[in-house]
Amino acid sequence: MADTQKWQIRQALPSEVEHLSELALRSKSYWGYSDQFMQACLEELTVDEHHIENNPTFVLEDSRDIIGFYSLEHISAPEVELSYLFVEPDFIGKGYGRKLMMHAQEKAQQLGYSNMIIEGDPNAERFYRSAGGSVVGTKKSASIPDRELPIFCIRLEKLEKS
Prior knowledge:
Layout: E1 8-11, H1 17-29, H2 35-41, H3 49-54, E2 57-61, E3 66-74, E4 79-87, H4 96-110, E5 115-119, H5 125-130, E6 134-140, E7 148-155
Parallel strand pairs: 4-5
Antiparallel strand pairs: 1-2, 2-3, 3-4, 5-7, 6-7
């Protein structure tokens, strides 16, 4: 794929929350989850204006539309959580998630964080590992009973500038 830089990453706007929430649902459903599962995840996948106004949130867009987005949430002085990272299903596997992840890591470093924590979907484990993440534990899902989610940590100080 020739990358002619027809895309950009910019700060998300509060007026985009409905679009971002719908994108998150479409992206999550890419993994073939049932309608019941998706309904259970609805609240955690909903982005609201308060979130965007209080957490660094960025969208990747091309000339037509938003392709994906991510958000960072402060945990503590050294740690930030990647609270969202979603890509439109038609663009999954085409490098846009990687572009968002690299931007998120650079932004977290600029903000002074040394560790990025990710409560990841089990289907995304390979993606987060390839981005430098190590599984450091698991956490019970807030939406789905008896579901364990892998927790990843990316040590930002070890990242090389590209």
